[in-house]
Amino acid sequence: MTRGALLFAFNSPKVDYYAMAEYTAKRINHFLDLPVTIVTDEHSIPKNTTYKFDNVVISKPDKDNKFRDDIWINKGRYQAYEYSPYDETILLDVDYMVNSDRLLQVFDYVKDYACHQNIAQLMIPEGQQEQLSNISFPTLWATVLGFRKTEKTEQLFACMKMIQKNYSHYAALFNFSPDIYRNDFSLTIAHRLINGHHFDKSNILPWNLMHVWLRTNLFVEKKTKYNTKYTVIYDHHKNGKVKKEYITIKDMDFHVINKDVFLELM
Amino acid sequence: MDTKKLVADMKARFEHNSAKHYLKEKYSSKLCVAEQGGYWKADVNTISFLNSLTSKTVVLLDLYDIPVSVNVKKLRDKLQSVYDTVMTEWHKEYKDLETKR
Questions:
Q1: The pTM is what?
Q2: Relative to the CA of A162, which of A76, A94, A216, B48 has its CA 20 to 30 Å away?
Q3: Does residue A202 belong to the interface with chain B, where contact is any CB pair within 8 Å?
Q4: Which of B17, B22, B29 sits opposite A249 (nearest CB)?
Q5: ipTM over 0.95
Q6: Between A and B, how many CB-CB pairs are < 8 A?
Q7: Which residues of B touch A248 (CB under 8 A)?
Q8: How far, in Å, CA of A59 to CA of A13, rounded?
Q9: What CA dihedral angle connects A39, A41, A44 and A45, to 10 degrees?
């Protein structure tokens, strides 16, 4: 039985996702003792890198996910099933900061696949859960997706492929914006479809995904190779004023929404 | 980075509610346990119930509402051990944060 992590990283004009993937891969190696496979394209791989991934899968990026002046090269995630060389895989976003061995427990919960439904937001205790739309259902998060190579998992990824290809149709059906493709939405819908439009909670991890949301900044307490202590500073907007609030955290994984914040931590 | 200076320069205030929330998220997730083919939370209710039983086995609904036949002593010992370890860490970090201003 082989286990490993899988990262997708295609550089955009603004963000060096490959560098983020390398940083995250090193932390996965260190904290989880797992090998890491990267899915990327030749243009993203730097010439002078010394880090060796367990496997490098070269894939053609789909660059048509554009909105205003930005581009998100996040399509094609459904290929994780095909690209993963492992029997059990954790598919992880590269902006997920690994600070502990917490993710190893994901394998305990993966019958076919397992992901987060509920999120918590650092510095925002009263934060709301995301819905696909006001008249729809809660979003599942593709940030952390553990899976085994089973028939049901293969169906899930095949369904995500179908949804990606017909995204406008599903956006109209579930009443969300088709402007930006989101893997979270594909996963949410695919999970329902392959379970006969029934919500099967046995694929949901029983703890929350911690998000570092907007207006929240993180600072490394002491720069070491695998630092796990951070000071979190939050701009609390209230009654037209901004109050600075802070806490300190340690040894906890989190997902950083703002890529600039993640890059500053590297 | 001198984060203490940074916090002082920004005149940032330590937010105890957010710290409590962070601790709850961090440590309550560690109370989840996979054991004997089921998924459990090492909480006071489950441990108390297991402590009250005299039988060797019992059928419990796990976190996913699946009925699982378990060895009472083995599950109780596991949950008690996880509970003790996690709550001790939680308490220690809470005490550290409680003094911050």
A1: 0.94
A2: A94
A3: yes
A4: B22
A5: no
A6: 87
A7: 3, 19, 97, 100
A8: 18
A9: 80
